[in-house]
Design goal:
The protein has 5 helices and 4 strands. By secondary structure, the chain is mainly alpha-helical. Helix 1 packs across helix 2 and helix 2 packs across helix 3. The chain starts with a helix and ends with a helix.
């Protein structure tokens, strides 16, 4: 679990990652990543809102306010959303 959080902390401002990309870098399954994000003990230090689906859609967010809050946090971080999706070609962080 700690390797997942450590990798996520490397995603710079203005970039995101996907459940699949993070899973591949950590050597686990994308569904495991979703569970790690759900149980993130420190969302301020480990920005789980930066993890999205492989099609660029936001996916879930268990923090206060749900997906609406996730979208706000992404915008605040410099991420552009169009029709509820992120342009992965421009904004995906590569591990």
């Amino acid at each position: 679990m700690e390797i997942v959080y450590s990798l996520l902390r490397r995603v710079p401002r203005g970039k995101i990652t996907t459940y699949g990309a993070l899973a591949k870098a950590a050597g686990t399954h994308p569904r495991a990543i979703a569970m790690f994000m759900k149980h993130n003990p420190d969302p301020v230090k480990t920005p789980c809102y930066k993890v999205v689906r492989s099609d660029g859609s936001l996916g879930g967010y268990s923090g206060r306010g749900g997906v609406k809050t996730k979208a706000q946090l992404l915008r605040k971080d410099g991420i552009t959303l169009r029709n509820g999706k992120i342009d992965l070609k421009r904004q995906l962080h590569r591990f």
